[in-house]
Amino acid sequence: FRQRGIYHKCWKSDKIRAEGQIEKGLKSGEWKHYYENGNIEKIENYKFGELNGIFMYYYESVSFYESFVKS
To answer: What's the pTM value of the predicted model, to 2 decimals?
Structure first.
C-alpha cells in the first residue's frame, strides 16, 4: 500500500473491486468491496490497519446483508 491516500483495486473489467483510505501504510476508515457485477460485497471499518466496528456483508444477488461487530 501507499503511505497515504485513496486506494482503488479493479477487476480485469476495470470495474472497482475495492476502495478505501490508507493512513501511514495501513487501512483506515471505511472500505468497500464490490462484486464484479458492481454490487457491494462488503463494507468494513478499519483503525490502524485492524478491523474496527461494524462489518457488513451483502449477498451478491440481493440487497439483504449480515452485519457483525468487532470489539
So the answer is: 0.83
